[in-house]
Amino acid sequence: MKTKTGAFVLPGDALGVTEEYDPAEWTFDDDGKIRSLVAGTVSLDSKNKRISIVPKTSSPAVLKNGDVVYGQISEVRGQRALMRIGGIKDNKRGLVTNFSGGIHISQADKGYVAKLTDEFRIGDLVDAKVTKIIGLDNVDLTTAENELGVVKAMCTNCRAYMKQINKKEVLCPRCGRKEGRKISSKYEG
Predict the structure, then answer these.
(1) Which of 160, 162, 172, 187 can pair with 177 through a Cys bridge, CB separation 3.0 to 4.6 Å?
(2) Strand, coil or helix: 34
(3) In the chain, what are the domain boundaries?
(4) Is 130 helix (H, G, I), strand (E, B) or coil?
(5) What is the CATH number of domain 8-55?
């Protein structure tokens, strides 16, 4: 894994180890191995012990801690809601890869959450903030801020989009079903 400055690498290629270098732009830490996130050329900073990649083409969007992303809930389990991430809010460029995100029950809302199904349901469109990037395509997310959470809720009965009726509830205009959600202050509908 002795990569030299100027070497061409592809996404996932091993570049070095975290004992020797810190991962920088367009790289990530994979259990102690530094890997490339994009196709490009290696840039070693020996003075600061950092390794980065200069992308080959125009840069796609890359997730960072603190980025607000949008996506759709694909599964809700006991302690975790899974979300397919569509992109970074207010960024027109596509992501480097298809990311999946997880919202732990403790990160769903401020305070105590008894059941995650009272916060999210499959099909809901959600805004969330990246708290941790895990590997090449998985991230931890939070919705525990007012402007984060469900921006468009989907009825679990008839799959129609629902109208907000108060701070924590939505109502289906088609079948009349009421459901709870972690509603964003930017809810559409």
Answers:
(1) 172
(2) strand
(3) 8-55, 68-152
(4) strand
(5) 2.40.50.100
